[in-house]
């Protein structure tokens, strides 16, 4: 039985009607703004938007915004999340390694860094920066294609001896399309043929106007190899982060995005997740794409067990039923029953969508033969 109109549902969630219709379409339901939908469908939509849903009676539902929507006074500053992009061999991996070793905690006992797909650097000032450890445009685009926004700032690496190359331009396009601000790292300035000013000039042609040329994009000269300028680059990232006013509510059920996932022989399915809001704790029940789990252990980028992880922190999560995909959103839910419901629905939907694609493909084949 239909119990609520799309418009009313949108109003109660404080979302735009068009977005609710879009979400319904993703769930395979075609509805107009004035049409009514049933409680089951409404519940799924509400869940997808991250709000709380409660059936009050057969004819009424309650959509809980309280405690779910993050009011301004609950928001606290969070660390920026950074992706490094640039042309092959311009030094992305070298720079990520160099930056990783600027972590003050790396020097502490047992502070050996583990490769979990992301790491967080704590500076001597106490400020933190999270780096996604998978350089390259593919990971970035794959995430974006899934609707996940994991990156706050792109660090565009350009080798000072090589200048702007095809993948540099591609990276600029990606950052722009995702509406993510850039900080340029002009790398390899230790090389005798390095020409950082030429890089600054060349960036103009791609409408990247650096500060020295009257623009707003910071360009920092670095050498990943000689470890020059790393502190300046980090300062630039933090300055950019300040402009973005990155904040999140740590006191709510956690939600975020899967950075990578694998099936580990000894430990079972393991996912590295980036917490974007709330705090993920041991014992929490969560869904991630078509999988769910109960957090058995959280392991940070130093290989240390942790009781919880807050906004902008990457952690390995143990306790999943299967491996989700990179870019899948994860969300803590109130019960195992709920987790099973959501994943069963999502798996069914994925299967149906695949079915539709296959059917369409065979139709097209049929017609192409005519
Ligand atoms: P990626 O393909 O962008 O990840 O580039 P890599 O980090 O693998 O670096 C490519 C090559 O450039 C390697 O041989 C690095 O040792 C070298 N390299 C990286 N950064 C620097 C630097 O700052 N100075 C010099 N001289 N070589 C560098
Ligand atoms: Mg590399």
From TrEMBL:
Binding-site residues for GTP, renumbered to this chain: 86-93, 133-137, 187-190
Cellular localization per UniProt: Cytoplasm
Tr-type G domain residues: 77-245
Top-level taxonomic group: Bacteria
Functional note: One of the essential components for the initiation of protein synthesis. Protects formylmethionyl-tRNA from spontaneous hydrolysis and promotes its binding to the 30S ribosomal subunits. Also involved in the hydrolysis of GTP during the formation of the 70S ribosomal complex.
Homology family: Belongs to the TRAFAC class translation factor GTPase superfamily. Classic translation factor GTPase family. IF-2 subfamily.
UniProt-recorded name of the protein: Translation initiation factor IF-2
Portion of the parent chain present: 374 to 743 of 951
């Amino acid at each position: 039985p239909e119990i609520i109109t799309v418009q009313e549902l949108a109003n109660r969630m404080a979302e735009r009607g068009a977005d609710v219709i879009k979400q319904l379409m993703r769930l395979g339901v075609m509805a107009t703004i004035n049409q009514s939908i049933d409680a089951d469908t409404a519940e799924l939509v509400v869940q997808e938007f991250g709000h709380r849903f409660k059936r009050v009676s057969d004819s009424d539902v309650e959509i809980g915004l309280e405690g779910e929507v993050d009011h301004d006074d609950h928001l606290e500053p969070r660390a920026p999340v950074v992706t490094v992009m640039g042309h092959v061999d311009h030094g992305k991996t070298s720079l990520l390694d160099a930056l990783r070793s600027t972590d003050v905690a790396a020097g502490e006992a047992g502070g050996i860094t583990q490769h979990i797909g992301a790491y967080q650097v704590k500076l001597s000032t106490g400020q933190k920066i999270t780096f996604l450890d998978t350089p390259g445009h593919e990971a970035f685009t794959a995430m974006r294609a899934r609707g996940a926004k994991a990156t706050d700032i792109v660090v565009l690496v350009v080798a000072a001896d090589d200048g702007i190359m095809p993948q540099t331009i591609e990276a600029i396009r990606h950052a722009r399309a995702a509406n993510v601000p850039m900080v340029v790292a002009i790398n390899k300035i230790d090389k005798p043929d390095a020409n950082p000013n030429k890089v600054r000039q060349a960036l103009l042609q791609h409408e990247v106007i650096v500060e020295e040329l009257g623009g707003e994009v910071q360009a920092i000269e670095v050498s990943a190899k000689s470890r020059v300028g790393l502190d300046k680059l980090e300062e630039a990232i933090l300055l950019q982060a300040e402009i973005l006013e990155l904040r999140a509510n740590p006191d709510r059920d956690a939600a975020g995005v899967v950075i990578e996932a694998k099936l580990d022989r000894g430990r079972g399915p393991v996912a590295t997740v980036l917490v974007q809001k709330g705090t993920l704790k041991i014992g929490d029940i969560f869904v991630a794409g078509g999988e769910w789990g109960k957090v058995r252990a959280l392991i940070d980028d130093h290989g240390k067990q942790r009781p919880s992880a807050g906004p902008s922190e990457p952690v390995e999560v143990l306790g999943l039923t299967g491996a989700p995909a990179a870019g899948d959103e994860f969300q803590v839910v109130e019960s195992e029953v709920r987790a099973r419901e959501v994943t069963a629905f999502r798996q069914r939907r994925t299967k149906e969508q695949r079915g539709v694609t296959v059917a369409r493909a065979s139709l097209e084949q049929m017609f192409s033969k005519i």
